[in-house]
């Protein structure tokens, strides 16, 4: 499976497709799975290693110079996150009204919070995890295939502008080893502590925090980012199966309408973000489109964006979803519980739910 992902990534990257490394790995491994190929026992670890590596690369690129752009864009970013999450909740409710999906499954399927995390949340609250995984996978594949091709077209008028925070030359061997070690420890500790997407978040915080304190651990060589993209793309592709496609087919039309709507909103909000903040257009677009906290930063540098700022916004959005969505689901479940309650009768002497 890993060999298939590598061949696909290198082939698509070689013909000049934007973000070809992750797109090619995803398509190759997905086709291999659909053809009946055995993913092997390591398929779940490809993504974890890729996220640990990507988080380390992103964290190593952080420094005091990235704080000013983040501060300048903080309020617009929060408004953008609120709009995207709010639209996801609204689309999820509409999806539950026009399909046979229950409200909980529909909401978790549409709100952009990351494929692994939302699938795990679905299992925790008793929603249909297979449908949730299928719809989020369709959203992720759509974003990865479409957005890298759109961004260069949309950003063409500003293609001559520089990235907001340019990266320095890569550090040497021993700082790279130190960064990889710190990122690995930080990511594994976050996972052990039960942090959702802890492999990515923990490695970013550990290495980025060390850099902000003056450790000088980055930036790392670009080849490490390509390795992370290959692993992440292969991991996403291994989740494709005939069963997930059958599940998606049952709600295909309304689900695709919801996916297109939320991607379109992300592109529009990204354009607006570029108008009111110092962020250049590729950075703003990739920060706004709900494509995942690991995939969008991974392709940002290839498309002229700043992967640090893209990662910061996507991780913030995920955090908002993880905090907000359980409360919303709890309210809806309590509301449904009250509506299905049967009034007490003298014979029963109480409520029969």
How are the elements arranged and paired?
Layout: H1 2-14, H2 20-34, H3 43-61, H4 67-72, H5 74-98, H6 103-110, H7 115-125, H8 129-154, H9 173-192, H10 198-212, H11 222-238, H12 242-250, H13 252-276, H14 281-288, H15 295-300, H16 307-339
Helix pairs in contact: 1-2, 1-11, 2-11, 3-9, 3-10, 3-11, 5-6, 5-13, 5-16, 6-7, 6-8, 6-16, 7-8, 8-12, 8-13, 8-14, 9-10, 13-14, 14-16
Describe the structure.
This protein is mostly helical. The chain has one domain. The protein contains 16 helices and no strands. It has helices at 2-14, 20-34, 43-61, 67-72, 74-98, 103-110, 115-125, 129-154, 173-192, 198-212, 222-238, 242-250, 252-276, 281-288, 295-300, 307-339. Helix 3 runs parallel beside helix 10 (198-212) and helix 5 (74-98) packs antiparallel against helix 6. It starts with a helix and ends in a 14-residue tail after the last helix. The model is unreliable at 158-165 and 340-353 (pLDDT under 50).
